[in-house]
Design brief:
By secondary structure, the protein is of the alpha/beta class. It is 31% helix and 25% strand.
């Protein structure tokens, strides 16, 4: 029998959530560096450099890699010979209560506050729980006296792109997976790892796919030794075929869409092949550890040599400096797809909830709380600032979620342009073309680096929405790439569709 204090479980998970908020796994950093060195597409290469610079800045600054600090997902393997006790003599708590306590403590830590993303009553008021609780618990009883914990902070950009299907026994799993990739878009911030779960039942296949992500990147080792079974053969085939699509980093085109493909399989019904895919984004965050009853786990920073040669800051000489305070429609007509800009001046922020309120006010014939005429909206929900910061990590969110609002805002408010991540859908592109607007893409997963280009932040509307409130940011050389120009041309060719009639 192994006795473990419940306080140690709480402390370890709390510390793990803090640790992974600013620390990439070493294998991910190494794989991203290899992909960056091999990349020939300038836009994709620049995006990966920004991700690497952000990774270095985050681990040194102990600030989140991404503004989407994720939902706390805790996987526990609990040996039947493990016995919990309380040092304080209080009654034992449930595992869910312990997970919630750890999540609450980690996400409200004043030294490194993490963004509260979880909402309650998803079909009703959708109110933010303010502390990111409840944590998501997955528990498996095992033999022996080991307590193994996997702590994951999974961002919405990756999980929302999960796919599931039940195939026939004669269908090709590889073909189905390849068919899904373009439709997933680039909102999951490639390059990352793709998990594939096969067999069992629908829910187990999806869980298999997700859990497969949290193992070291080793596709190069697999290629060197050769596939030994059908799962390994599928990994190699999918890795080559997915990267052959040339979706590339951030969907900008290029050689690296995935850094690895993981495949996990279980027995299933003879008439089916349940198959699920779940991607891990550029903000890959997880750590695995055991508790032995001797106290909480201590997490040590990887050797800083992991980031040797990566610049302290991102610089790009071949960029055009732009003062957004002095722009009109005539100026943006000169910008071309693929052009890199460094923005300075004042912009507004708004995400899903703020967009809905703005459009509702317009529909009711009411005045907006802030004029959008001639302004840029940045799709972002930042992390709270700490002492010395204008704003916490503030990277872009997926632009397609705001597509349904684009026509209304462009036609009724005089909005000049938008900043987000990944591609736009056909209706949004058509509206941008019709109104001679512009869409600029920032690098998803480079949130801490991007926040350093924000010199001032102030909430100016919808304060009750928390991180989704409308802020006014003042920028200094904020890097973006022209993703959709006023002619309707888009850089995200892998996802380009004809505008809807």
């Amino acid at each position: 029998m192994r006795k473990i204090a419940q306080e140690d479980l709480v402390t370890s998970i709390e510390d793990a959530l803090q640790f992974i908020s600013y620390t990439h796994p070493i294998d991910y950093v190494k794989a991203l560096r290899r992909a960056h060195e091999l990349e020939v597409n300038p836009a994709a290469k620049s995006a990966m450099l920004q991700l690497l610079v952000n990774s270095r800045m985050s681990v040194l600054g102990h600030r989140p890699i991404c503004q989407d600090t994720g939902t706390a997902q805790i996987f526990i393997k609990l040996g039947v010979e493990v016995q919990f006790y309380r040092r304080d003599g209080k009654s034992l708590q449930s595992l869910q209560a312990l997970i919630n306590e750890a999540t609450r403590n980690a996400y409200t830590n004043p030294e490194n506050p993490l963004r509260a993303t979880t909402i309650a009553d998803p079909l009703g008021a959708r109110s933010n729980t303010k502390d990111n609780t409840p944590g998501q618990l997955f528990c498996e009883m095992t033999e022996g006296n080991l307590l193994e914990i996997l702590v994951v902070a999974k961002g919405g950009g990756g999980d929302v792109k999960a796919r599931f299907a039940t195939l026939n026994p004669s269908d090709s799993v590889a073909d189905w997976v390849i068919d899904q990739l373009p439709g997933m878009g680039a909102g999951w911030c490639p390059p990352g790892v793709l998990g594939v779960g096969i067999g069992a039942s629908p829910e187990q296949a999806t869980l298999l796919a997700k859990q497969s992500l949290f193992t070291p990147i080793d596709i190069d080792l697999l290629r060197a030794k050769g596939a030994q079974n059908a799962e390994e053969q599928l990994r190699l085939e999918l890795f080559d075929r997915i990267n052959g699509l040339q979706i590339g980093a951030q969907g900008l085109g290029g050689l690296a869409t995935v850094l690895d493909v993981k495949v996990s399989a279980l027995p299933c019904h003879a008439a089916t092949i349940p198959v699920a895919i779940v991607p891990n984004c550029a903000a890959t965050r997880y750590v695995r550890f055991n508790l032995d009853g001797l106290g909480p786990t201590k997490f040590e920073r990887p050797p800083i040599s992991t980031w040797d040669g990566i610049p302290d800051e991102f610089h790009l000489e071949a960029a055009t400096k732009v003062n957004v305070d002095a722009l009109d429609k005539k100026d943006i007509q000169e910008w071309k797809v693929g052009q890199t800009l460094l923005l300075s001046g004042k912009i507004l922020t708004a995400r899903d909830a703020a967009h809905k309120r703005l459009v509702d006010l317009l529909g009711q014939g009411k005045d907006l709380p802030v004029s959008l005429k001639g302004r840029f909206i940045y799709y972002v929900g930042p992390v709270d600032a700490i002492k010395g910061e204008a704003v916490g990590p503030a990277g872009p969110t997926t632009a397609t979620r705001m597509d349904k609002f684009v026509e209304i805002l462009l036609s009724q408010t005089g909005l000049l342009g938008m900043i987000g991540k990944a591609e736009r859908g056909p209706d949004a592109i058509a509206a941008i073309k019709q109104h001679q607007s512009i869409y600029l893409a920032a690098v998803g997963g480079a949130a801490y680096m991007l926040s350093k280009a924000i010199t001032h932040s102030e909430v100016i509307a919808f304060e009750d929405l928390g991180m989704e409130a409308i802020h006014e940011f003042e920028l200094k050389d904020f890097p973006v790439i022209v993703a959709v120009d006023p002619s309707g041309k888009t850089i995200h060719k892998a996802f380009a569709l004809e505008p809807l009639k």
